[in-house]
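Re: beginner question about structure tokens

> Can someone show what the tokenized structure looks like for a real chain? I only ever see the sequence side.

Sure, here's an example I had lying around. Input first:
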Amino acid sequence: MWFDRENPDVVFGDCRRETLTVTDRSRGNASGNRVLRIEPDVLHDFRAIPYPDESFRLVAFDPPHLVQAGTRSWLAAKYGKLSGNWREDLRAGFSECFRVLELEGVLVFKWNETQVKLREVLELTPEKPLFGQISGNRGMTHWLVFMKR
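And the corresponding structure tokens:
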């Protein structure tokens, strides 16, 4: 998602720090392997972001979107997998994102509808998006923009 991970204005957080080799034969990958490096600046759980209230003007929230994935799934390895309690997890994630946003701060939310419809996810926050965009070759990835009022 980030064009410049070295930008001092960016803090990348994830609950994992690891390097994985996964099977991936897409896009003409002859070796059949792909190395994934998950290297966050800060280790944290999106349900408990370790920053004070109103710390950021902009937050990008790109949680895992898979509920079901095989143990060797490269998508699950790269993006993570939701727990069986995914509704509560995402509800807490939205709450935390809005908590750490300054007043009139912006939340950019990314969601892929492969397994869970966007409408189900939007039911988990009382906040309403201002606008959004659908992308991807099957039109399943949604980018939404919220503003904290």
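Each token stands for a local structural state, so reading them left to right follows the chain. Residues 54-147 form a domain with the Rossmann fold fold (CATH 3.40.50.150).
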